[in-house]
Amino acid sequence: MILPIVAYGDPVLRKKATEIPQDYPNLDELIENMWETMEDASGVGLAAPQIGLPIRLFLVDTTPFSQDDELSEKEQKELDGFKKVFINAIILEEEGDEWAFNEGCLSIPNVREDVFRNEKITIKYYDADFNEYTETYDGLQARVIQHEYDHIEGILFTDHLTSLKKRLIKSRLNNISKGKVKVDYRMKFPELKGRR
């Protein structure tokens, strides 16, 4: 089932999400709905707060980036089919040089800005079957994970911008929270309660 994506301005996007137990009700169905919702909106990641649930769950699928001709063949191969569920994730380490990449967010449609992030992360998480992993990622895989991880910490990509950039996009962000934005996927706006 395709769920509405919560728009910028909703308080749920600012909450630090809580851990989820292994017996969380209907978890498989929730994850399936999140995959459907993300694919419908042409996203490469989706976190539970973006569908209104302040829980530590997000998923990523970097496959769309594998079509980018500016990437090396090795990078394209790494990104193709990289599809994972992250439950109760904790980033243990961020390292390497910070590098800029133009980011966007399904909760903040039609706003894209360069964001600086570390090139490499080590993350501990559980998969959908609650198997525990500690893994290291770099490049675009790391970036997408960092972006989604921020969501479960109550952080948005716009928080990483300079104060000047934030001032320049302020009116666009206000318009999003009021539903004054065109999108081709379902959204829930804080000031409109459920209007598409």
TrEMBL record:
Fe cation binds at residues 105, 147, 151. InterPro entries: Peptide_deformylase, Peptide_deformylase_sf. It is an enzyme of class 3 (hydrolase). Its EC number is 3.5.1.88. The active site is at residue 148. Keywords: Hydrolase, Iron, Metal-binding, Protein biosynthesis. It catalyses: N-terminal N-formyl-L-methionyl-[peptide] + H2O = N-terminal L-methionyl-[peptide] + formate. Signal peptide: none annotated. Its cofactor is Fe(2+). Pfam families: Pep_deformylase. SUPFAM superfamilies: Peptide deformylase. GO terms for biological process: translation. GO terms for molecular function: metal ion binding; peptide deformylase activity. Gene3D superfamilies: Peptide deformylase. Binds 1 Fe(2+) ion. Removes the formyl group from the N-terminal Met of newly synthesized proteins. Requires at least a dipeptide for an efficient rate of reaction. N-terminal L-methionine is a prerequisite for activity but the enzyme has broad specificity at other positions. Belongs to the polypeptide deformylase family. This is Peptide deformylase. It comes from Nonlabens spongiae. The lineage of its organism: Bacteria, Pseudomonadati, Bacteroidota, Flavobacteriia, Flavobacteriales.
